[in-house]
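Researcher: Re-running this chain for the archive, since the previous output was lost when a drive failed. Same request as before.
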Amino acid sequence: MGYFKVDRRVFDHWLWEDKPFSKGQAWIDLIGLANFEDGKTLYHGEIVACKRGTVYRSISFLADRWGWSRKKARAFIELLESDEMVTAKVTKKGTTITLMNYGKFQDKGATEGTSEEHQRNNRGSNEKRRIKKNKEINTAAAARDEAWEGFVAEMKRRGEWTEEDERIANSRIR
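Model: Regenerated structure tokens:
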């Protein structure tokens, strides 16, 4: 099916401020909050090694961010765990949420696969456009031929169509 890129600045846009979040918004927000590369961060006064695809946030933080109760936020994370979308580890300092398959959807390899899929889709779309254009051409040609035949019929009815006109017309059409 593929994917699309979303600039992280979307999370700062006024559209993202509407609360409460839907489950879909909360899921996309988790992806946006996830570390996109391994690194280190200051987390509750300690330096913590951050793994790619991991979110270091408390349930309270997420609940407030999403406009939900802590109970609803916790239930949502548990729901994601039951569907094997995340793993969550709760500590005294907060919750570590690891997005499963984060790399699969974010790595350059996914871009290449998506590009191939995009090209296949474009080929299909181009073929559909070509078929549609041919139909339009054929329809226009049929309309032109019909108009020509009407013109010739009218000229013959008036007696203004000569053998010379017929010879010239036949040599150009065929």
